[in-house]
């Protein structure tokens, strides 16, 4: 059965309103003195600028006759080296070069700074998610534990983490814990995001467990299952289907929250955006593109979430 | 039933006081011998389910003592797990594990608790399902079964642990009327085979036909107990008389 005409009409109204908003923004931007330079953006996504071939030691350069091979002999010692597969020679035949000098360029297509930033965002989010799930499950179990000490500790953790801003936590992890434990910026980022997200995961886990009817625990215990067995074989399998959708939503939040790690010396998507802005002076275009890239990541995830929700809805 | 049979459940003056001070059970004493079928009746809120649930430690007690199959339950009870392996329980709401198939519902505890080999547990589960007339439903999930079928699975699940006694907590109260019969039939069969049973129910017909003793509770107290003929035919207690007038 196709939806009635009036529903399509309302969808059209929504599209029209969005279009009006968009053109309003466009007109507003016309009134300020800003030159749109979209053509500058692609090179920051995919870089055609090749890699540099650098001299590994101080020495003399020799170019073969066909121009396809570079060889070097060391200034001191007997070290030699050969290079092939480049597209442009920088050093000339017989030149004296020093370690680190660019002697040739390869013209490979490589990921631009924005894509590299996106990759770091993905990596840090994925790692943080894994740790957040483990930690969150543990703390969530602590929240519903019969042991008052476990309950107190878990409640304390959740209150402290949820009661302080993520940005402040990142500073504390980076400057304090990172210094004490000598964490790299990347590890500190993963730790900060995992610790933060775990508090929310814990609450999701707690809610999921508490939503399983009490009769299930009673039934499991009356057939002689231990507390741990009851949790593992009866409660958690049932809680999982309630936990999965909000958990996926929380991982979308994690991806967005990861933009805050750009305050550390980490070039994630947001930091990459900032760097590109400072070299292009095109903040509007860059930030729109960055937003779109985040939207792409979260969009893929939320489609996956919807699939999950539908699947579990069918099972009842 | 033989009077020389050992006592399986011995409750002595048990008391249940809720944290808000309300007394749920007042010095209730009851003993159940092996092979006996004891039916507990009474108005709702009279504490009959509470009493039943103290027998496997689902409900804690604040006074008195319960000895079930040699396990002593005090206020702070020690080994509930060992006790619960000997005491089966059938709930009003069935409480089958919805994420497991019927067969898995029956095999979970025998495999995990009794450490039975999977094949042995599987075979016993199939025998029990045949006994309750549900051989064809092995691979169904509980949600695919009717209420009566679910309750029969729940009885089979309790039997799978080979308990010394089974507690029935209003097993037919959540069922549509046409399904009550099939569940009572299974329970009747169990009674005939000599299973020790404690049944909280509103099914007076079942109590009259199957029970060895009927117990009447009101306001947390055991007011009287008698053989079914005397219980229904010549009720001694005044409160029981008015209760029976209402339900019969």
What can you see in these coordinates?
- Chain A contains 10 helices and 9 strands.
- Chain A is α+β, with helices and mostly antiparallel strands.
- In chain A, the strands form 3 sheets. A 4-stranded antiparallel beta sheet of chain A has the order 5-4-3-7, with no helix packed on it.
- In chain A, helix 6 (185-211) crosses helix 8 (227-257).
- The longest helix of chain A is centred in the C-terminal third of the chain and has 33 residues, at 283-315.
- Chain B contains 9 helices and 10 strands.
- In chain B, strands 6-7-8-3-9-10 form a 6-stranded mixed beta sheet, sandwiched between helices. Chain B has a 4-stranded antiparallel beta sheet with strand order 2-1-4-5.
- In chain B, strand 4 and strand 5 (71-73) form a beta hairpin.
- Chain A binds chain B through residues 213, 215-216, 218-226, 229, 233-234, 237-238, 316, and chain B through 56, 58, 80-81, 84-85, 87-89, 91, 93, 95-99, 108-109, 112-114, 143, 154, 157-158, 160-161.
Short account of what is shown:
The complex is a heterodimer of chains A (316) and B (248). Chain A has 316 residues and is α+β, with helices and mostly antiparallel strands.
List keywords for this structure.
heterodimer; A: alpha+beta; three-stranded antiparallel sheet; extended; B: alpha/beta; four-stranded antiparallel sheet; about 25% strand; globular
How many H/I helices of chain A? 10
Give the biggest beta sheet of chain A.
Answer: 4 strands, antiparallel
Shape of chain B: globular
Strand content of chain B: 25-35%
Share of β-strand residues of chain A:
5-15%
> Which chains have the largest interface?
A-B, 18 and 27 residues
* Average of the residue pLDDT scores of chain B: 91
What can be said about the biggest beta sheet of chain B?
6 strands, mixed
Task: Give, in order, the helices and strands of chain B.
Answer: EEEHEEHEHHHEHEHEEHH
């Amino acid at each position: 059965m196709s939806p009635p005409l009036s529903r399509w009409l309302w969808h059209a109204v929504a599209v029209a309103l969005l279009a009006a908003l968009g053109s309003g923004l466009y007109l507003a931007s016309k009134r300020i003195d800003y030159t749109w330079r979209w053509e500058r953006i692609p090179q920051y996504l995919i870089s055609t600028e090749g890699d540099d071939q650098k001299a590994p030691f101080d020495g003399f350069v020799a170019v073969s006759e066909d121009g396809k091979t570079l060889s070097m002999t060391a200034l001191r010692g007997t070290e030699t080296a050969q290079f092939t597969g480049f597209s442009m020679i920088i050093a000339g035949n017989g030149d004296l070069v020093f370690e680190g000098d660019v002697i040739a360029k390869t013209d490979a297509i490589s990921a631009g700074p924005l894509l590299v930033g996106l990759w770091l965002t993905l990596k840090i989010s994925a790692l943080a998610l894994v740790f957040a799930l483990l930690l969150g499950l543990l703390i969530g179990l602590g929240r519903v534990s019969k042991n008052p000490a476990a309950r107190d500790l878990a409640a304390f953790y959740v209150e402290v983490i949820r009661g302080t801003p993520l940005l402040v936590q990142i500073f504390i992890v980076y400057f304090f814990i990172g210094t004490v434990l000598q964490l790299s910026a990347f590890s500190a980022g993963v730790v900060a995001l995992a610790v933060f997200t775990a508090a929310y995961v814990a609450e999701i886990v707690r809610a999921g467990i508490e939503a399983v009817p009490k009769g299930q625990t009673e039934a499991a215990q009356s057939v002689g299952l231990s507390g741990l067995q009851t949790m593992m074989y009866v409660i958690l399998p049932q809680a999982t289907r309630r936990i999965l959708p909000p958990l996926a939503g929380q991982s979308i939040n994690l991806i967005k929250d990861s933009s805050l790690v750009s305050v550390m010396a980490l070039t994630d998507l947001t930091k990459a955006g900032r760097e590109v802005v400072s070299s292009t002076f095109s903040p509007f275009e860059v930030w729109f593109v960055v937003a779109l890239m985040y939207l792409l990541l979260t969009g893929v995830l939320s489609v996956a979430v919807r699939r999950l929700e539908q699947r579990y809805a069918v099972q009842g | 039933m033989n009077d020389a049979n050992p006592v399986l459940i011995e409750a002595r003056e048990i008391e249940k006081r809720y944290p808000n001070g309300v007394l749920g059970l007042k010095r209730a004493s009851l003993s159940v011998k092996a092979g006996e079928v004891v039916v507990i009746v009474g108005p709702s809120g009279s504490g009959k389910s509470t009493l039943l649930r103290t027998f496997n430690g689902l409900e804690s007690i604040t006074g008195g003592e319960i000895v079930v199959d040699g396990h002593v339950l005090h206020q702070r009870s020690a080994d509930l797990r060992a006790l619960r392996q000997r005491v089966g329980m059938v709930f009003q709401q069935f409480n089958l594990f919805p994420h497991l198939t019927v067969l898995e519902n029956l095999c979970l505890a025998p495999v995990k608790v009794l450490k039975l080999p999977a094949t042995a547990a599987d075979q016993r589960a199939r025998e029990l399902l045949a006994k309750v007339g549900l051989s064809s439903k092995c691979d169904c999930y509980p949600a695919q079964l009717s209420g009566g079928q679910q309750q029969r699975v729940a009885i089979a699940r309790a039997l799978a642990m080979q308990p010394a006694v089974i507690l029935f907590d209003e097993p037919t109260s959540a069922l549509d009327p046409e399904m009550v019969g099939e569940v009572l039939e299974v329970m009747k069969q169990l009674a005939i085979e000599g299973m020790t049973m404690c049944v909280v129910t509103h099914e007076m017909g079942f109590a009259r036909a199957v029970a060895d003793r009927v117990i009447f509770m009101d306001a947390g107290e055991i007011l009287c107990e008698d053989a079914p003929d005397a219980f229904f035919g010549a009720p001694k207690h005044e409160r029981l008389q008015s209760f029976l007038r209402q339900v019969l």
